[in-house]
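Milestone 3.1: sequence recovery, worked example.
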């Protein structure tokens, strides 16, 4: 019998190419939040995939972009630092689209010593001929260990991707138990699910100006109920009004959406109590960033 393989893989790419969607698909469970807006992911998010013959510890990372505030600087730094010590790098780009940001990431990739798999996502958006042409054009950019077109949405080529990745891992131990999916505490995931609803339901600068802090989680095992109190922080008074909405409608909708996600995760009934507070210009304040877990 062949030996068990295990190791660490960083998933890197510019914002919005589908890194988090890909990881959720590979895991078959939603851990990392997703939206159609760039800069959704703010932290390095650990996701563990275990098979009979191997274990891959993935790091989902914030999209690499040009930062305009301290939060953005933290995000980009987090992405770059996640490259240290991993066994392989999964660089995700988007089918048919090569941008300046990809060019910038290429410079970073060229300096790495680990094998780089160039994975081209969203293959569902172009026809076979367009895909072949694009794959050919990006193949020349660097010395990749492999290039593969996939669709995180339809699942195309995802099994092949996992097999390829395992091929780059050394023989090693099972670092985490079979049912382990992430090392992040549940509180972190709750806050992320609330943030995801805001990303979906608000526009322009609002989704990027908020942070979510979980104030209290209490369980009532007799009633199979978990009560969560959380605060949504915004940067300005005007944003507070938008998050609350007319007659509190927006806050209610955010709460309903997040509660459903959390209930799915926990498998019990959830009571979610949301509050909104202003913390002026928090994205540029080291103290506030630290408080929200961005340090
Ligand atoms: N058509 C199509 N859309 C996809 C695919 N994968 C992801 N998307 C969409 O792309 C958008 C961005 O997805 P995310 O997973 O949040 O992207 P990300 O790379 O994690 O983005 P950041 O966290 O901001 O860096 C979402 O609207 C997804 O639904 C795919 O294979 N096909
Ligand atoms: Mg993401």
């Amino acid at each position: 019998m062949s030996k068990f393989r295990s190791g660490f893989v960083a998933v890197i790419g510019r914002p919005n190419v589908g890194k988090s969607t890909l990881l959720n698909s590979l895991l078959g469970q939603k851990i990392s939040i997703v939206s159609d807006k760039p800069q959704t992911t703010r932290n390095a998010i650990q996701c563990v995939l275990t098979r009979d013959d191997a274990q891959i510890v993935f790091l989902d990372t914030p999209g690499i972009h040009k930062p305009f505030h301290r939060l953005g600087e933290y995000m980009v730094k987090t992405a770059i630092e996640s490259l240290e010590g991993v066994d392989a790098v999964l660089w995700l780009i988007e089918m048919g689209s090569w941008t300046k940001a990809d060019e910038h990431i290429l410079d970073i990739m060229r300096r790495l010593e680990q094998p780089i798999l160039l994975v081209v996502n969203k293959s569902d958006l172009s026809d076979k001929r367009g895909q072949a042409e694009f794959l050919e054009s990006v193949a020349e950019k660097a010395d990749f260990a492999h290039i593969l077109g996939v669709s995180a949405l339809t699942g195309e080529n995802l099994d092949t991707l996992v097999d390829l990745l395992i091929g780059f891992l050394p023989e090693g131990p099972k670092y985490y138990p079979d049912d382990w999916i992430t090392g992040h505490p549940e509180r972190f995931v709750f806050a992320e699910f609330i943030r995801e609803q805001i990303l979906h339901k608000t526009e322009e600068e609002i989704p990027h100006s908020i942070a979510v802090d979980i104030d209290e989680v209490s369980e009532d095992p007799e009633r199979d109920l978990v009560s969560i109190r959380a605060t949504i922080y915004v940067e300005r008074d005007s944003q507070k009004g938008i998050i609350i909405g007319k007659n509190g409608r927006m806050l209610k909708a955010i709460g309903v959406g997040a509660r459903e996600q959390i209930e799915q995760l926990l498998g019990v009934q959830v009571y979610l109590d949301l509050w909104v507070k202003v913390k002026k210009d928090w994205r540029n304040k080291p103290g506030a960033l630290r408080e929200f877990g961005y340090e």
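The chain has nine helices and nine strands. The CA atoms of residues 84 and 127 lie 36 Å apart.
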